[in-house]
Amino acid sequence: MALNRKIAYIDLSTGKIEIKPIPINVRKKFLGGRGLDAYLLYNHTKKGCDPLGPENTIMVSGGVLTATLASATARTHVMAKSPLGGLLGSANMGGFFAPELAWAGFHHLVIKGKAEKPVYLWIHNGKIEIRDARHLWGKTTTETQWAIREELGDEDIKSLVIGPAGENLVRFANVMTGIKNSGGRTGMGAVMGSKNLKAIAARGTMDIKIAHPKEALEYNKHFIEQITSAKVNQTQGTLGTPFIWGATNSWGGVRCRNFQYNQELYCDDIEPEAIDEVCAETMGPYHMAGCFGCQVHCRAKYKIPTGPYAGAYDEGPEYTSQGAFCGEPDCRSIETLLTGNHLVDQWGMDNLETGSIISWAMELYELGILTDKETDGLELRFSNDEALLEMVKRICFREGWLGNVLAEGGVIASEKIGKNSFDYLIQVKGVSNLHSDERATPALALNVATASRGSDHLRSRPAIDLYHLPEGVLRKIYSNPVPYEGLLSSEHTEYVGKPWQVFWQENCYMAVDCLGICKYHTVFLGATLPNFEDWPKVLYYNTGLEFTPRELWDVAERCNMIERLFNLREGLKREDLKKGDMLNHRYFDEPTRRGAPDVVGRVIDREKFKKMIDEFYEYKGLDKDGIPKPETLKRLGLESEPSHLV
Amino acid sequence: MEPMGKVLAIYPEKCTGCRLCEQVCSVFHDGISNPARSRIKIMKWESEGLYIPMSCQQCQDAPCMIICPVKAITRDETLSRVMVNHTICIGCRSCVAVCPFGAMNFNVIDRKNFKCDLCDGDPQCVRFCEVKAVDYVDADRVSIAKKKAAAEKITAAQRQAIALESESH
Question: Domain with B44 in it: what CATH number?
Fold first, then answer.
């Protein structure tokens, strides 16, 4: 049974390991995955703890459906207090790790303390061992994974690892599994590094009994048809996520030159089709790979065709790499894109944060706020591909004054650089924005501003808002499972109805994160994809757990509220630029300069934005300051937190 | 004798490595999700991006059948498959040792060998593989895709030759 997977508490300081079941009442309240991680984080960390100190706790988990026959339950979730923003840290990745962890007997790991010397965890069929990792320290992400397999003599071992960036406590180091699956955001790799935890290796052959196997099989088949019939997923399956960057760039929704423009021009070489061509040339006509059990297969395979890393194999690049190594720094070379993507994969750092922060530094250099003194002579201008890749290296290995400073993340770096450098930093809650420019899309701006882990698109983005769907269609989606009678607008430049959409998406994404499913299997990019109606069935067939759509929604709302409570405890204030639900002033003050006729010349209206936040808070049951009302906590059963159910 | 029987055709180049086949195989046969129970397995060379599905070839002169000391393994000609009779099987694993494809498995939980039985004519791995890296085809069609692909290269050369010819005139 999926429900008999355990939770393990591991103290790296003492070496003590405790294994406990997950009680059914906890499942009913938080399900698993990110939701239960949030509960564990809130209750197993103390207010104000140092994110890079032994008192921080890092959670690693699969969802309640991980490794069952629900479709694409590949996602691994990692959570801790973030060293980047000092608030919620959370990252989610595909691949094969969480299913293997589940077959090894576990759904959740709660890791605290700090090992005296580098170690890794070896998790095998119900047992956990802390092993020496001194010989792995310094190795890249893939070198580490292959070395563990060799050492333990099993090629089927799946590992979650950090690279040099995590060891060097780069505050946006990621955790990785496989070639490119990354728990990228909010510096979870630095937290692992701070604990001297190089890797978590899992391998298991423990049965997961399916509650209703026949129905689970048939429903999986139905799910696959629903998922693969969506045009957006067919495109994902051929071009991968770069198609999103290409489409968004076409109307002026991607950042260029940090935040100076909202569209990259003359970029034939880095369009999705051009990337696809390189993949086909180097890997053959069938060059798409899938995560565990997924029929979307959005992960491209490629070899770098030219340059110093020619011939190196990697996967991706995802649209975030296009943003990081093309649009934001205004570089337009496919070699730079594929090489940059390879470096961050190998060294284990968040591509998105890396590109964003370097582009910010490039703007500062062009403005004269940074000079050759700080860059050690590096000409850190936009469109300087060499400088971009050199800076990636300097950050990872903390080389030079600027490399070392940028490795601290934007907020700390801005304090060290001084002057008005912070004004140019495109971030929310200390976390840099991805490559998208939301000045023409209020719904997306609201999502970025209020996302629980800092600026982020995967927490609450109503991406289908860009499709101009008829109001009736929107109402059908957004009125379930909770009725919504208010206004909705098909216009992506509008403000009305957007707070509800963001609220709905926030709960939708939390639900899939608790289940352990990929967001491409829900209403993220496709309007026809599964949502609250479908999951109770999958949950029942696979685990026997009975939920109504509304009950699932309630779980999601509860877990989102726990994340909110954590952020509030760690200092979230509504309009605080570093720790709030607030956007950089450039969103309000600098009109977009490029793009489609209805996009060019746009800013976010400050007053309307405030109203959107007010309305969003209302739906969440928060007061005007963003603090939950007592009745909200009571309704969600969170009035007695912190508690220690697990 | 009438020609009969379909075969499992594997096209490794199409495999995306998702391993859904392993999952549906174990759930279909055992009601349990566990790749260790799957009859099909994706072998991976991850650092090169190569994924190869491996399953029983249902050999005509099956080494497992020949080696079995108690004749527990026989051919079922109606579905053109090799079957194990577990009431006769003594669990010696000779078949596991001798199979050239590693397609005979041994289940450590139930202490029995197990292999692909083509799901009695509706192989679930095929049913669920959207990219058709595994397919279930009439035996006479098994090489047709490769023939066509190879022939296409020749047609391309021919077309080019014709084009060059017409240009030079």
Answer: 3.30.70.20
